[in-house]
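for the writeup, i need someone to sanity check this before i put it in the appendix. the sequnce is what the collaborator sent (i think, or maybe the updated version? ugh). structure was predicted straight from it, no edits. if anything looks off just tell me and ill rerun, i have time this weekend
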Amino acid sequence: VLGLSRKPRPNFSSRGIWYDVAGQELHLIETSDVPSRSEAHPAIEVRDIRAAVAICVAGGAELQQDTFVRTHDNSLSAFIRDPDGNLLELTQHL
């Protein structure tokens, strides 16, 4: 949904997927443990925040805080929870 590029992942005993995010690796690992639903979250920069929010919500994400201006850097930000309840911040620099 976010258009991330998938990266090869070694054949570990756990299930998971790796993505390239602007030259950084994002490793997602499947586990039977329920993760903490703290407010810690990754932020993902997108080109069009309103379109990204709409696509995420259409894909099953829950909108937590709609698009707003972050005054410290004059960028746009929005918060969603993915279908597993993980908090994600979407941001667009103007």
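The chain has a mean pLDDT of 86. The helical segments are 49-58.
thx in advance!!
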